[in-house]
Structures are given as C-alpha cells and as structure tokens.
Write a structure and sequence with these properties.
The structure holds 2 protein chains of 2 kinds.
Chain A: H1 5-28, E1 40-46, H2 53-72, E2 81-87, H3 92-104, E3 110-112, H4 117-129, E4 134-136, E5 152-154, H5 160-163, H6 165-173, E6 182-188, H7 193-206, E7 210-217, H8 225-234, E8 238-241, H9 246-258, E9 264-267, H10 274-281, E10 290-293, H11 304-315, H12 321-340, H13 346-355, E11 357-360, E12 363-366, E13 378-383, E14 386-391
Chain B: H1 2-32, H2 39-57, H3 65-84, H4 92-114, E1 129-132, E2 135-138, H5 139-161, H6 163-173, H7 175-180, H8 185-210, H9 218-232, H10 237-257, H11 266-277
Antiparallel strand pairs in B: 1-2
Classes of the chains: A alpha/beta, B mainly alpha.
Chain lengths: 410, 294
C-alpha cells in the first residue's frame, strides 16, 4: 500500500514548477541579463500579404538594408542587429496578435512600426501597453498622436495634416492671375489621405480658390469612372486627390478615359511610388503631376548615398519611398539606443528622442512631446519621366513646371 | 439627364464584368454546393497570367482570354482533384474553410511568382474612350463587356444545348437521380469546378485591364462576388447576371446621386432588402425542406 501518493505527486509538481520558473528566468529575462554578445532582436509586423503588401514589402526591404548597414558597421552597442519580421496580412487583428507575440514569445528587445495608420493604430497601442518604444515609418494620421502615448514616434517629416501644407502655401502665394480659381477634392476615406486633403483645402479656400467638388469614397471602391465623370462636370482648374496607390492610378486612368484634364493635378501617396506609378498610368501621362514625398534618392541628406548604394546592391534600382521611410525608422531607433547607451530602459529611449534631433536619410528629424514630427514634407513633381523635388525652394532640384500634361511635355 | 445616362452606361459596363466574374462562382455552388472563397484569388491569377502574356509576348489581353481561360481551367481541375474532391461531400463549413485556405495559398504563390508590386495591363486603348453625344464610353470596358457577353453566352449554350450541360443541370437538380440514369456526378463536379474557375480566369483577364491588381486584390473581389451570387439566387446563372448588372448600376448611380462614399455600401443594402422579400434571391428557387429521405 502506498504511503501518500497525492503528497508525493504534489512534491513532484513543485519541483517541476521550480525548474520551469528557473528556466523561464534564464531564458526570458530579456537582454539585460545576457553577456552582451547576443544580437539585439528588433521586432516588427508588416503587411507582406494582403491589400498593403506592396508598401509592406518595400518597408521590409528598408529595414533589411538598415540591418545590413548597421551590422556592416559593427552593430548597435557592439551587438549585431537581428530583425524578427512577421506578416500581418494587412489585418488589424493579426497585427495585434503579432506584436503581442513579438513581445511575449519572441522576446524582442526593441520594436519598430508597420505600414499605414490603419495598422499602426492598434499596433502602437500594444507597444504602449507594454511600455516599448515604437518608432513607426508610416502612420501619419493625426489620430495617432492625440492618445497621450509616451512611446510612439513617427519617423517622417510631418503628420498627414502637414503633408500638403508646402504645396498649398505655394499655390496660395501665386499671383491671382496664375492661381487656380477652382479646385476639386475627391478623397479616399483613409486616416492619412483625408486629413492631408482637408488641410490643403482649408488653405486654398482661404486664398480664394473655390471648392467645386468635394467627396469621399470608400476604401474598397474599385471603379472611379463615375467620380471622374463628376469631376469633369465640375470642371476644376486644380484637382487635389487624396489617394493611396491603386485608387490613385485608377482615378488618373478614369480622367484620361473621360477626356478631362485639369490644369493642375496633385495626388497624395500614389505618385511617390516611382516606376510602378509610371508603368501603371503610362510614363508620358505622369508629366507635371505633383505630390508630397518624404525621400529623394538624390538628396544629400546624411547617410543617403550609402543607403541608396546598399539598396541598389541588395535589391537593384532606386529605393522606393516606403523603403527609405523604414530605413529612417531604423536610424531613429539606432540613434536613441546609441544616445542612451543601453536598451534596458525604454522610457529613457523615448525621453532621449523627445529632447533630441536625429539625422536621417529623410533629413533632420525632431519631435513634439506627443511623438509627432516637427518638419515639413518635400513636394515632388514628375518631369520628363522622373521625379524632381520642386518645393521647398531651398532643397529643390528643379523649378515647378506649370500644369499636368498627360501624353507628354510637348 | 446626360449625367444619368452616363451613370447607366458606366453601370452596365461594370455589371457586365461583374457578371462574368460571378458566373463561375454561382455555377460551382449550383452543382456542388461549395462556396468557393478562393474564386477571387483564381480571378487574380487570371489577371496575372493575362498580364504576363501581354507584357512578355505582346498578346492583347482580350484575345489572350483564349489562352488564359484554358490555363486557369487546368489549374481549377488540378485544384479540384488535389484539394476539393476529398472533402466534396463534407459539411459546407469544411469546404468554406478549405477554399479560404486555398485563397491564402494562391495569394502566397502569386506573390512568389509575380511579386507584390501593383500591376496594370495597359494595351494601347486601355485609357481611351468613344465619345457619343457628349458621353464617354471607355474602350476597355466596352471590349471587356463584349468578351464577358460572349463567354457568358458560350457558357449558357454549353449548359442548355449540350449533353454535358444537361448532365451538369441534372447533377445540380438531383444528384441521386442523375447517378441513377448513369451520369457520373463526380466527373461532372470536377468539370464544373474547372469550368467555373476557367470563367473566373477570363474575368481576371478583363479586370486586369480595368483595375490595378496585387496578389491581395482577391479580398475585394470575393466580397462583391458573393453578394452578387446571393442576390441573384445561389446557383442561378441568369440570376447572377441580373444581380451583377443591378450591382453595377447601383454602384454608379449611388456615386453620382448620393455620394461616392456610399457607392460600395448601397448595393449591399439592396442585397439585404431583396433577401428580406425573396430569401432565395432574385431568380433562385426555394428548396423544399419538408420532405424526408427514405
């Protein structure tokens, strides 16, 4: 007859429990307990599949180029950088799961952000709840920064509502005879595009540019022929289109089909996707299209030639804007880590960024207390089949060419 | 008035493309009772194949339908044999899960083969229009509509004027009875699945000219196509065509007279209202559920 089996079983469980706790303590205490030789693990979840897969892939490339450049230079704090990248499939629920897993299961040391305001909204909340620094390469909706977050930083020049300010101010400053009299504003219902267009409209209306068309369309709108038809009926001199990529392409093609050519065409986001945009609407039809952009491959910003060269080596061609934005997010994170000299206290990293300015491939970045950046975007224009920076004038690589000339400059 | 006519013209052209895209989905459901969530993904496969034929060999995408359709048909047949056939008689939830998984696999394969960059098939007439009495009629939409009508008529003829079509309809109406008169329902099912997918491939060749696409574009398509098939009456080809045209018209007229922001929502509201009045859809038939199998 056994003496006391339940008691013996309980003792066994206790031993197993103590061992498990000890193992967890060894394996899960983060980087601070390590010998400093292990790589610094940096986690992100990107839309590598699904609707945002195109910019998501570009962002992945940007992060990988940054990883290569940093590791070629000896790493961060003498440790190699190791990226842990998950695919959120462009889904808000998946990205929440991914960032939770990065923190609790993969036990990454640091985080960087995803693409789009739509995905960064929930992902940054996970980071904030876990008191993790969250430097995002995209996600400039003003809604991102009115939540009182302490660990969120946006590594482009400005939030969405600042994106077109330089362009709008320039239009408003034109002599009355040259200034467009009327404008139309079809806009994707998107947390980035809508605020950008609203801010431009406010400035232009104040400057006396009459709004003749203002409509928002849903994100799953595939056919923009009807909108082009309505814009044609309104006959604006300036068309400001709040777009992502596919709808940006579709509206231009619908305008061409409708036979309507506004004197000026400004689009958010789509024209900054370089060759893809030119192929999608036809290179000759890009002539004169204006847009806001965060990065210029030809810019002499700190580290930019090295970034462009490494990107060409790894992927070929000039880096797309989204790759440069991700690279800049890595630079911002790296600067904070070097500035503090440690990765143990993420609050210190955030405090350091709030007080500092960081040189990046996008230029010098600095932040408000809420993590929103203080700078201004560049304004690009398609000229002769390539993009030139035309505003602000102190960094411009070319003068603005008047008007949109589909079919070519002739 | 011209605004209304323009909206109707654009809506009819849009509906024609929707009809072709949805035809295969309703055909597969009609015969096999499978809700093919991967249908949108096969459509995008058709777009990519058509793009490759145009970009690499200079084959016009609408003429290329003659190549795209059989290639996607073969892909559909293979998919059926490998993945669908083993669970054809499983509960509907299983086939929904399976085809959803298939959609994800296809998306990943497309990303691997063609990459995730957005693509547009742009033959010379892609952005040109005919001008008729102040209206514009986009050439690509018009040609796409013509191809859609031709493919749908061919599909209709196949179903109504051939022995295969009779076998398909017999298998759809009464599979047990069809087996009794010597129709191999399993073989018919594999053919129907492949035909349905092939028609989706033809639709993809057309939509690839009209709209930019990436591997993930299938999510946007499947939602629309399911709504169209339900509105038309699940399994009814004529119903799907009617619903697709109604869907296209509702989209364009809503965008013109209410707001573009409602253009994608109002058609779904129409689906909701129609189903309240006719739960079987516009041309669907209500099945009797008061019979007991012996």
């Amino acid at each position: 007859m056994s003496t006391n089996p339940p008691l013996r079983r309980q003792a066994g469980f206790a031993v197993v429990g103590v061992l498990a706790l000890a193992l967890a303590a060894c394996g899960g205490s983060g980087s601070s307990s390590k010998d400093g030789k292990d790589p610094i693990k940096i986690g992100t979840s990107l839309p590598l599949t699904g609707e945002f897969s195109q910019p998501g892939k570009a962002a992945e490339q940007g992060y990988k180029v940054w990883q290569a450049v940093v590791n070629d230079g000896g790493g961060l704090l003498g440790r190699k950088v190791e990226l842990v990248i998950k695919d959120d499939a462009s889904n808000q629920n998946t990205i929440v799961t991914d960032y939770n897993a990065l923190i609790s299961r993969d036990k990454v040391d640091l985080l960087v952000g995803s693409y789009s305001s739509l995905l960064n909204l929930p992902a940054s909340a996970v980071a904030e709840r876990n008191r993790k620094l969250y430097v995002e390469p995209a996600g400039g909706s003003p809604k991102m920064f009115n939540r009182g977050f302490k660990y969120l930083f946006y590594s482009q020049q400005g939030t969405a509502d600042r994106q077109g300010i330089v362009f709008a101010d320039w239009v408003a400053s034109l002599p009355a005879a040259q200034r467009p009299k009327t404008a139309a504003y079809p806009t994707l219902d998107d947390p980035f595009a809508a605020p950008s267009v609203d801010a431009i409209r406010a400035i232009l209306e104040k400057a006396g540019v009459k709004t003749v068309y203002k409509q928002t369309y849903a994100i799953d709108t595939k056919n923009l022929d009807t909108i082009a038809s309505a814009v044609k009926a309104a006959d604006p001199e300036l068309l400001v289109h709040g777009a992502s990529f596919d709808d940006g392409v579709s509206l231009v093609r619908s305008l061409l089909k409708s036979g309507f050519k506004p004197k000026w065409l400004y689009q958010t986001t789509a024209p900054s996707l370089g060759d893809q945009y030119a192929k999608a609407i036809g290179a000759a039809n890009t002539e004169g299209i204006l847009f806001a952009v965060s990065h210029d491959p030809a810019a002499k910003t700190p580290g930019n030639p090295a970034f462009v060269a490494k990107y060409k080596e790894m992927y070929g061609g000039n880096p797309p804007e989204d790759a440069a934005d991700a690279y800049a997010a890595g630079e911002v994170l790296g600067a904070a880590v070097k500035g503090v000299g440690s990765i143990d206290d993420q609050a210190k990293l955030a405090d350091w960024l709030r007080k500092s300015a960081v040189d990046t491939v996008l230029g010098n970045l600095s932040w408000n207390a809420n993590g929103s950046p203080k700078g201004e975007f560049l304004i690009g224009q398609w000229q002769g089949g390539k993009v030139n920076i035309v505003l602000p004038k102190d960094v411009a690589t070319a003068e603005i060419v008047q008007g949109w000339k589909p079919g070519g400059a002739s | 008035m011209s605004e209304l006519v323009q909206s109707i013209v654009l809506g009819l052209l849009l509906g024609g493309v929707y009809a072709l895209a949805a035809a295969g989905l309703t055909l597969i459901f009609g015969v096999m009772r499978i809700i093919n969530i991967a249908h949108g993904a096969f459509l995008v496969v058709g777009s990519f194949i058509s793009y490759t034929l145009w970009n690499t060999f200079g084959i016009d995408p609408f003429l290329g339908v003659l190549i795209t359709t059989p290639v996607v048909f073969a892909l559909g047949w293979l998919t059926y044999k490998v993945a669908v056939d083993p669970i054809r008689n499983a509960p509907m939830a299983s086939t929904v899960l399976l085809t959803f998984g298939l959609a994800l696999v296809l998306e990943a394969l497309m990303g691997y083969v063609w990459g995730n960059d957005s693509m547009s098939t742009r033959p010379s007439y892609a952005d040109a229009s005919y001008s008729v009495g102040g209206l514009f009629i986009p050439k690509a939409q018009l040609y796409g509509g013509v191809v859609a009508v031709v493919v749908l008529l061919a599909l209709g003829a196949l179903l109504t004027r051939t022995w295969l079509g009779r076998a398909i309809r017999a298998a759809a109406i009464n599979p047990t009875g069809a087996e009794l008169v010597g129709i191999k329902v399993g073989s018919v099912a594999s053919l129907v699945f492949a035909i349905g997918i092939g028609v989706a491939g033809a639709g993809g060749a057309i939509t690839g000219v009209l709209y930019p696409f990436v591997p993930g574009s299938h999510y946007q398509w499947i939602a629309r196509l399911l709504a169209i098939v339900v509105l038309g009456g699940m399994g009814s080809l004529n119903g799907a065509v009617l619903a697709a045209v109604l869907f296209g018209l509702t989209e364009t007229i809503t965008a013109t007279y209410i707001s573009p922001s409602w253009a994608t929502a109002v058609p779904y509201a129409v689906v909701f209202l129609v189903l309240l009045l006719r739960p079987q859809g516009l041309l669907g038939t209500r099945s009797r559920e008061d019979t007991v199998m012996a």
